[in-house]
Amino acid sequence: MDDTLIYRKIELEELNLDLFRKFERRQNVARQLQKQGDAWVEKPVSLVEEWSREDYEFLLTCLQNTIQEGGVVFGAFEGNAVKGFASISGKPFGYAGTYRDLTSLHVSRELRGRGIGTRLFHLAAGWALAMGGQKLYIAANPAIESQLFYRALGCTDAMELNEEHVKNGPTDRQMEYVL
């Protein structure tokens, strides 16, 4: 676990491009888990996922909307720069309104593997539970590292599907975490 970072809520007025000036969203993906029938099958791929300025601008809009609609964004800070963040929608969903949506969880490339994502995940889960949620909903990136991360935390395939997530990320694995 990386104890040199400060973990806290990010306030709406803090959300600007400068906050992410030292954040590197880059992932070299060599293997994905893809759904084939009822099974998840490992497939070799060769792609690089990297955010552009436009991607960061879109991210800011999404995070601002999350806070404005009653959700929360947690950050892992190194000085005044975000090195990891997690966001949770404030809107419950699902048949009985028991799900809270983990809309993002990212750690800057150079700091992955140090427990930052795990700590942010648990901050998000604690907030969702305090807000009356019973489960976190995760649309996990198909990269095998992402899916193994969530599995290691105890996430399982979602019992209810969020059709918007399925439509927007047809290769994502829809998962849940019981709070």
From TrEMBL:
Domain N-acetyltransferase intervals: 18-179
GO molecular function, one term: acyltransferase activity, transferring groups other than amino-acyl groups
Top-level taxon in the UniProt lineage: Bacteria
Any Pfam family hit: Acetyltransf_1
Coiled-coil features, chain-numbered ranges: none
Name recorded for this polypeptide: GNAT family N-acetyltransferase
